[in-house]
Structure formats: structure tokens, C-alpha cells
Amino acid sequence: FQTVPVLVAVNKCESPEQGLAMAAEFWSLGLGEPQPISAIHGAGTGDLLAIARLCIGEVAEPDRITLSSNVDEAPVMGDQGQLAQVIRNLIENASKYGAPEGQIRISLEKGQTGWVSLSVADEGEGIAPEHMPRLTERFYRADPARSRQAGGTGLGLSIVKHIVERHRGRFDITSQPGQGTTASLILPLLTR
Fold it and tell me: What is the C-alpha separation between 97 and 116, in angstroms, rounded?
């Protein structure tokens, strides 16, 4: 983790609030390489469905969000604060870049193979194919003007990918121009 690029980036922010947000996001990215889940600070067991419900309850317009699940609980091992940050970032992106009054659909499904998937889909403009490979790069913005206007730092999806991989999961984004965007992750279910 290098402090000089962080200070340069934070100094380029348009407001102190954006600078603080960026500094906090950098801190999240500096968590280190993947390691056993039990070694993650704050690791324990949590219910991904309960975490998703909690995050939905925190947003300004929860009635725009629908949650569907094929299970009553989805036990996973990991840092519940980090997992909540992942879900918050995905909801925030869908809210910022989706259709202004459009629905945000969150789906949680337990698979037959010991994994749970969570997806967040919006009804926005979608993302052009040339931007897709770079979306999880630090500071990358598919539409810099719109991202700046919405208060984005270009770190949210990078943080999401980092945390998901740290929890031994996978993260993917699919999008079609004019059809919206879906951000999906899978995590290993806790076996009892």
C-alpha cells in the first residue's frame, strides 16, 4: 500500500467529503492478498440474506428495491462488515447509474454445489462493451463526467472485487447497452 499515490489522488478531489470517501475506499483496498477466511479480521459467520436485508433498509428509497431468494438463510463465513460494504456498493451503483425511477432487483440463490449467488440488477442505460474489461480497475470510470456528478471515486467496484475474492468468491458484471447492468457474486456457503 503506497501512501504517495493515495495523497495525490485525495488532493485531486473536488470536496473534503469526496476526499474522505476516497481515503476510506483506499483503506479497504489495502487489506492484503487473499488468505484463509478465518484469518480475516472480524471473520465469523453471517447470513448473507440478513446482511442484504439490512443494507436495503439503509437506503434512501428502499421501495425501489426488490429482494428475492430461494432460501430462508444463506450462512457464509467472513467479515460481515466487509460483506455489507459489498452489497452497499452494488446497491449504490445501481441507484446512481440505473434509471432514476427504475427498480433495483436483488436476487440471492443457493446452488446445489455449495455456493450462494447474489446479484444486483438495474434498469439503466447499460455499459458499452469496450468498458466492461476495465470496470473493476482502480479509478476507472466508464463515464467520468457522470461519475463525478454522482459523487463516484472510481474505486467502488474495485473494492467489491477485492473483498469478494478475499472471501474466496468470484465477482462478475454483465451489461447490454439499453438493457441495464447486473453485478453478480458467488461465495462459498458455510457447511455445518
Answer: 26
Q: What is the CA angle 57-62-67, rounded to 5?
A: 85
H-helix or E-strand spanning residue 159? helix 156-166
Whether 108 contacts 118, CB under 8 Å:
yes
Cβ burial of 99 (10 Å; 0-12, 13-18, 19+) is: middle
Cell triple for 162: 477485492
What tens digit of pLDDT does each residue of 128-140 get?
888 878 887 887 6
pTM, full prediction: 0.77
Select from 114, 122, 108 the least CA-distant residue to 51: 108
